[in-house]
Amino acid sequence: MNIKSITLIMACVIGLSTMSFTTNGASTEGKESATIIWKAEKVTGKHQGTVNFKNINWNFDSNGTLESADFTVDMTSIAVTDLEGDMKGKLQGHLSSEDFFHVEEHPEAHFKTTAVKSLGKGAYDITGDLTIKGITKPLSFQAQVENDGHMKHATATVVIDRSEYDVRYGSNSFFKGLGDKAIYDDFTLEVDIKKH
Hints:
Number of strands: 9
Order of helices and strands: EEEEHEEEEE
């Protein structure tokens, strides 16, 4: 039940030296797209949904190797996809509230690259600073980039510990005796970016 969004990932568009684009996260076949799916678990179940990139800025060297990847995520776009009706609306509202991401005060999350290491065969280690709710912490993750000659396709799975960003609701890191009401601190972002 606790989403997270955030921002991250990496990779792709390997034919350009510098590129930036803005996307609302909509995925249209044959066109550039960028999506983030969040997945969070609690003792008694799990939830998932989406959150959108606001912008993505990539830098590549003359050989097409990724040098940096900076992102902004639109936290006001948090959506729940595994519920319908009133339950869907209630959870989305709760995730946007002060209990979780307080999006009215913190409408954006940011990732700024500090280091990129090519692992070969389209794989990268990316390290940077992730800012959520005005709190900045270091974050590292791996990204994979594939190129079929027409489309660059970058994917990554990123695990974030929400307790590091003062997202306290239902967390055993802040409250004891929650039992089966506890929500795990780690949540996962599955990132998928496609670009011609």
